[in-house]
């Protein structure tokens, strides 16, 4: 994500129909407003740009509809495509930016703030953020001491989803650590089940693998140092994480389609390969958002599909995640009111009930989530508080951490093809990161 890498479904057939519907979504002028003063924004149209399509787009539509009913405003969702930063830059330079955009990369907030492309949040929005969100989420939305972003969507990326029957048939239990994970994978393979669907065709999924291994193995402090490029990507800790990944990635028989298949597999297809009617693998590493896509198969989350925390490679298990922040490209009444609404548990509940979503809003009652799996995942994010680790690739400029066919995505795809190339991969990552930070 963004490229938000909790955004699993991109460009599906469902998305096409959904976007047509979303183009006109919003308040009916005859609606009676909610309890915030009625139709305070009647006649106002608010354009919101976001990457979400498919199941996620449908979830966000519920938020837009709730805002329209409450205020009388008409909302228009503009799809950004995978490269949100590039899309918005083009709109801004063309003099037609949306009112609000959802940024799936924390690093882009700092980039856009520096260029003067986004507006500081108003005092009421900031007050609501301080009341309902942990300090770490406020900090993620802050650049140069000013709050520009309100994190509306969070994600727990330290999860492995598995098909219950595959584990039952092989007689295995969810592992707690990396050694147990490697053993589980081997046992599944020995039992005749392909263990993993690795969606290497979406480079962001591979960054998630790396970050989870690195966070636990190198520790929180090293993780934060590498996130800020305070240590180099050629650091021994990076190479050790790559070697650990190679314990799995170097075994083509562990992956659906082998190494070549894994490098072309997209996340939506990986979900189907694990949970569809004709499964081809037993599990996949994926954020909580996968639940919405599993629901589109014949499997049921909570029974057929379960999760376990990403196995720890060090003393503590990782808690890595990401998020989408709402930012204002236009400072007007409609934008400010929409941002205020997004800061409320009411807005979060509108999507939470639909599934495939986690809110960083600690005021949201967990009962709004549709099943125990999603409640547990959401609770883990909230309980992490200020120890929550943001997706490292999203903390870098998009040229390194969020561009298809370039930077970290491409380097890890190449590493998946050749897991023996530890030194060359580390050197390439360092070169790309340095270049992106200088541009």
TrEMBL record:
Keywords: Signal, Transport
Domain of life: Bacteria
UniProt keyword Transport present: yes
Annotated InterPro entries: Bact_solute-bd_prot1, SBP
Signal peptide: 1-23
Protein family according to the UniProt entry: Belongs to the bacterial solute-binding protein 1 family.
Name the record gives this protein: ABC transporter substrate-binding protein
Native organism: Actinomadura fulvescens
